[in-house]
Amino acid sequence: MAKEALEKRVERLEAENKKLRHEMERAQAVVEITNLISRMQAYHTANRNELMPALYAKKVPDVRLYWGELGSWEGPDGPAKAGKTFEKMGTGGHAGMMAIHLMGNPLIEVAGDGKTARGIWVAAGMVANKREGQPTAMWEWNRYGIDFIKEDGQWKLWHHHVYPLFQVGWDQKWAEQFPRKAVGIKFSEETKPDHPATPLDVFYSPDEELPYIPVPEPYETFDPRNMY
Fold first, then answer.
1. What is the pTM of this model?
2. Whole-number Cα distances in Å, 4 to 7, 8, 10, 159
3. Are 133 and 95 a contacting pair, CB within 8 Å?
4. What angle is formed at CA 144 by the lines to CA 165 and CA 91, rounded to 5 degrees?
5. What is residue 183's predicted lDDT score, i.e. its pLDDT?
């Protein structure tokens, strides 16, 4: 009986140990994902679009980068294509460009199986640029919804969705931005998005209800129906 009781106790301790290790790995995932987001914004602020693709998954076909009203780019080469688009728009890859976004209100959920994670942020930022030889600056706020996947032991961006909130000139009164005009970008075959903007990709309007970006809830394994 003593041997049987000891074996059951050992089994119980091993199960508790396994559960504890699993929860520690999930907690560590939150730290690693937070660092990944900070690295992304460090590259963005320094205008280093060429470094961005390394932050995205490479072994899944449905990598997506959504950029508000512009639409989204899909596939492992999608982030690089998006970077070229930003350069064509004059919002990346040249001197005089600086975009700072402070990522706040983080809410991160790691899947029970530890293979994926989901998170949302609110980003308060400013953008400085040079257009037609003249310096410009504006305030820009966005919301982020991102799915992450663990690839070869490292967390990577999987579905990266930037939901716009507002853009307004640094010296402009808040009310003067309405009605907001569409960007009206003309894309080339090389840089055009693979998908159009979603119904959630709209800027704030005093005449419309702001879309709700679903918060990540605890989950066991990823469901593509809940993709950001």
1. 0.88
2. 5, 6, 10, 50
3. no
4. 70
5. 59
Domains contained in the chain, CATH given: 2-226 (3.10.450.50)
Token pair recorded at residue 3: 């041997």
Q: Which amino acid is at 74?
A: E
Q: In this structure, what is the dihedral angle of CA atoms 149, 39, 126, 85, given to the nearest 10 degrees?
A: -60
pLDDT tens digits, one per residue of 178-222: 777 655 667 777 778 999 999 999 999 888 899 999 999 999 999
Structure tokens at 20: 């504890």
Sheet strands (E) in 40-133: 64-67, 72-74, 98-110, 116-131
pLDDT in tens, 129-175: 887 778 889 999 999 999 999 999 999 999 999 999 998 888 888 88
Local structure of residue 54 (DSSP, 8 states): G
Query: Are 127 and 99 spatial neighbours (Cβ–Cβ below 8 Å)?
Result: yes
30, 110 Cβ separation under 8 angstroms: yes
Closest among 40, 60, 46, 59 to 224, alpha carbons compared: 60
The single residue listed with the structure tokens 């929860």 is 23
Is the model more confident about 59 or about 131? Answer: 59
210's torsion region: left (phi>0), alpha (psi -120 to 50) or beta? beta
Q: What are the angstrom distances between the C-alpha of 194 and each of 135, 146, 187? A: 32, 18, 11
Nearest to 33 by CA among 126, 162, 144: 144
Two tokens at 35?
Answer: 């660092």
